[in-house]
TrEMBL record, chains A, B:
It comes from the Bacteria. The keyword Hydrolase applies. SMART domains: DSRM (SM00358), RIBOc (SM00535). The lineage of its organism: Bacteria, Pseudomonadati, Bacteroidota, Cytophagia, Cytophagales. It comes from Belliella calami. One of its GO terms (molecular function) is ribonuclease III activity. It is found in: Cytoplasm. This is Ribonuclease 3. Digests double-stranded RNA. Involved in the processing of primary rRNA transcript to yield the immediate precursors to the large and small rRNAs (23S and 16S). Processes some mRNAs, and tRNAs when they are encoded in the rRNA operon. Processes pre-crRNA and tracrRNA of type II CRISPR loci if present in the organism.
Length: 246, 246
């Protein structure tokens, strides 16, 4: 605790921007940051990152890696406790729906993180980086974890992230088309392949094209920004074409 | 703490098997369990699980889901701190090498968990379940997390799991053949596809066959128990065939 108090002393030396950032963090996280530099790093998108002397880009991507793991664990425990009678397949799938990019993008807007990012990126094209809000939210989780520890982060995620989800609604309304299709193919003993036809675009903007082949015959195609989404889209099209009940 | 002390009272009522299990856990984990039933569940493989009244199989798979997440987070933080100057791609890949099934199987043998599983499964064919040791190790992590909390689990993972890895050696000796191949194809502007040709086997035993197609021509094939491994194997074969330097 002594170290953290010492760090609080630094707040006296904050410049104007740092004061604003600290206030924003307090508003979002519920408590003033101990180590503000972690949060500065968390909102540093790779596209605005400077290169350090040894050629490393100083961006939030490492924090995002850590935050992604912490978020996954806390959502896992939340679901584990909330659904004591559901199997691990259900838990895995429900979690992937909660921590997916689009959902996290929306949460980032709701908690005010998007506004902070827009200020940080001023003058730059945010639309070129579709997942910047969600990515930054994960990096923020990583920063909170390093700054305040696991218990604090868990509380933040439960009270300020998961609360925005209607978990029962998520379970009822989403369907994993790929699973449905594979189930069907096994029941019908038909061999099924998911073929990645092509990947186009550049590092930031990708489009995957997936084709579904059943017993050697192409049945449907799907496109998406990830292979998973393209497979889902293709599976959805195949289910419609083959009249597979959803 | 009161609850946990109460639970310790239960130790007075342990039967012979429970006493042995508690002693084994103490030996492996470094401390007596508070709630022994979590550990009983952790070593309950799906193949020996009973069905509950509502048709749910009571096995360690839910704990494995939770433990997998906790293990991933703690290894993520360990690597984050150990390698301050490496990017998130490196961190992701190194983690996946540490928490892979084969490595976890070996750790389970080293810490004595395999012995416990063999006793639990006596008379049954363990070889039919290749990843039972590693899966159970993850379930054990899940049980420790629920029983003792995050800090205790972190200590267990750092002191009793990660210690068995020579992380520097892992980094130096393993190669991601798929990345190498994709890098090469981008440099040479050749279109590359990873085609999943077939999946054979049953629920427990799977074999994936992947074919690599470059500019429409099949170049190499690979087999493996997961799609990822099959892709690695196929990529390795392709790299050899095309004389791509590793």
């Amino acid at each position: 605790m002594r170290l953290s108090r010492l760090l609080r002393l630094q707040a006296l030396l904050y410049n104007k921007n740092e004061k604003r950032l600290a206030a924003s963090i307090k508003h979002m996280v519920g408590s003033k940051p101990f180590n503000l530099s972690l949060y500065k790093l968390a909102i540093k998108h790779a596209s605005v990152a400077e290169e350090s002397i040894n050629g490393l880009k100083i961006s939030n991507e490492r924090l995002e890696f850590l935050g992604d793991a912490v978020l996954g664990t806390i959502v896992a425990e939340f679901l584990f406790i909330k659904f004591p009678y559901r199997d691990e397949g259900f838990l895995t799938e429900t979690r992937s729906r909660i921590v997916n990019r689009e959902a996290l993008n929306q949460i980032a807007v709701k908690i005010g993180l998007a506004k902070l990012i827009n200020e940080e990126m001023r003058g730059r094209n945010i639309n070129a980086h579709k997942s910047i809000y969600g990515d930054t939210l994960e990096a923020l989780v990583g920063a909170i974890y390093l700054d305040r520890g696991y218990a604090f982060t868990k509380n933040f995620i439960l009270k300020r992230i998961i609360i925005h989800f209607d978990v029962d609604d998520i379970i009822n309304t989403t369907t994993n088309f790929k699973s449905k299709l594979i189930e069907w193919s096994q029941k019908e003993s038909k061999e099924i392949d998911f073929e990645l036809v092509s990947v186009s675009g550049n590092q930031r903007f990708k489009e995957f094209l997936v084709q579904i082949i059943i017993k050697g015959e192409p049945v449907a195609e799907g496109k998406g920004p990830t292979k998973k989404k393209a497979e889902q889209e293709a599976s959805k099209n195949a289910c419609e074409k083959l009249n597979i009940p959803i």
